[in-house]
């Protein structure tokens, strides 16, 4: 049976595995009851029916990235389901693993180049500050000679 977040589009593959867990809040006693399977879950995206989603990441940017692509994946799935669940063709597990591996490699390269870019910006800032100090020193010397 097809349920949950299906691997119908690129965004769903980027998100990775998403699991659905039931939670119930008793408003009279302010008690929260959580699905027991939630502690065994290794997925970074939890779908909580009637409450929303919970996206976890190693950084805020990572969690935001997962949330962004999850929203796009849900929109795509809603459009695709309109033709009927039996008419949907899902990619194989091998295809999904290949895409996830490729995406992980690309993300690591992007992070590497982002860090390198930030280091270059910091280096340029140091050079500009040293030039400014040198020019300020020259101005002080020129003003002191008059």
Describe the SSE topology.
Blueprint (H helix, E strand, L loop, with lengths): L9 H6 L2 E3 L2 E4 L4 E4 L10 E4 L3 E4 L4 H22 L11 H53 L1
Parallel strand pairs: 1-4
Antiparallel strand pairs: 2-3, 4-5
What structural keywords apply?
146 residues; alpha+beta; 2 domains; 3-stranded mixed beta sheet; elongated
Describe the structure.
There is one protein chain. The protein has 146 residues and is an alpha+beta fold. It has two domains: 90 residues, no CATH class; 55 residues. Helix content is 55%, strand content 13%. The chain contains three helices and five strands. A three-stranded mixed beta sheet has the order 1-4-5. Strands 2-3 form a two-stranded antiparallel sheet. A hairpin with a 4-residue loop joins strand 2 and strand 3. The model has no long low-confidence stretch (mean pLDDT 82).
Short description:
With 146 residues, the chain is an alpha+beta fold. The chain contains 3 helices and 5 strands. It has a 3-stranded mixed beta sheet with strand order 1-4-5. The chain has a two-stranded antiparallel ribbon with strand order 2-3.
User: Beta-strand percentage?
Assistant: 5-15%
Number of helices: 3
Provide the low-confidence segments as ranges. Answer: none
What strand line-up does the widest sheet have? 1-4-5
Shape: elongated
* Distance between the first and last residues' Cα: 88 Å
Could you tell me the mean pLDDT? Answer: 82
**Total domain units:** 2
- Main beta-sheet strand count, sense and barrel state: 3 strands, mixed
Report the radius of gyration as a whole number of Å. Answer: 25 Å
Name the structural class: alpha+beta
Helical content class: 55-70%
């Amino acid at each position: 049976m097809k349920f949950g977040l299906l691997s119908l589009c690129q965004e769903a593959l980027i998100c990775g595995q998403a699991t659905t867990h039931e939670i119930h809040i008793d408003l009279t006693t302010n008690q929260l009851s959580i699905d027991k399977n939630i502690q065994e879950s290794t997925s970074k995206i939890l779908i909580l029916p009637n409450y929303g989603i919970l996206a976890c990441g190693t950084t805020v940017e990572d969690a935001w990235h997962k949330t962004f692509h999850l929203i796009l994946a849900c929109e795509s799935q809603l459009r695709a389901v309109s033709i009927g669940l039996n008419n949907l063709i899902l990619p194989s597990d091998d295809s999904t693993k290949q895409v996830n591996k490729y995406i992980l490699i690309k993300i690591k390269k992007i992070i590497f180049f982002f860090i390198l870019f930030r280091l270059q910006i910091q280096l340029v800032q140091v050079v500009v500050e040293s030039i400014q100090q040198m020019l300020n020193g020259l101005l002080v010397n020129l003003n002191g000679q008059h």
